[in-house]
Design a protein that fits this description.
The protein is mainly alpha-helical and 120 residues long. 45% of the residues lie in helices and 10% in strands. Strand 3 (100-101) and strand 4 form a beta hairpin.
Length: 120
């Protein structure tokens, strides 16, 4: 579930406010405090994004682990191995675009690409 701070940052990125637990202390004299309804709608929207954020975090971790294979001067043993690694990394980068999210915000049938052999 999205925190009240995350919700306020999303709704009012330039406003001045503080929180005390779930209580909002609105300190902005220029911008209007969001209504409870606006906050709840944004909470639901941000909460539905949590699974895709977790997916991206894992994807980014896997990309970082294989950054060396994306270097132009990495000494691949052959062209087939180079192609396999470049295709793997591309599939990882494309992963968030190719996932399906059900009506409840859950990821459906997420399949991470299979890492090629790193043998030289």
């Amino acid at each position: 579930m999205a925190s009240i701070s995350a919700i306020l940052i999303s709704l009012c990125p330039e406003s001045i406010w503080a929180t005390d637990g779930d209580k909002i202390i609105w300190e902005d004299e220029i911008n209007k405090q969001p209504t409870d309804e606006e906050i709840e709608i944004e909470r639901q929207r941000l909460t539905k994004l949590i699974p895709i954020k977790k997916l991206r975090k894992e994807r980014n971790r896997l990309l970082q682990q294989t950054d060396v294979y994306g270097l132009a001067d990495y000494p691949f043993p052959d062209e087939a191995n180079k192609t396999a690694w470049l295709e793997y990394r591309k599939a990882l980068r494309d992963l968030p675009q190719n996932v399906v999210i059900d009506i409840k915000g859950n990821l459906v049938d997420v399949v991470f690409p299979i890492k090629p052999s790193s043998r030289k």
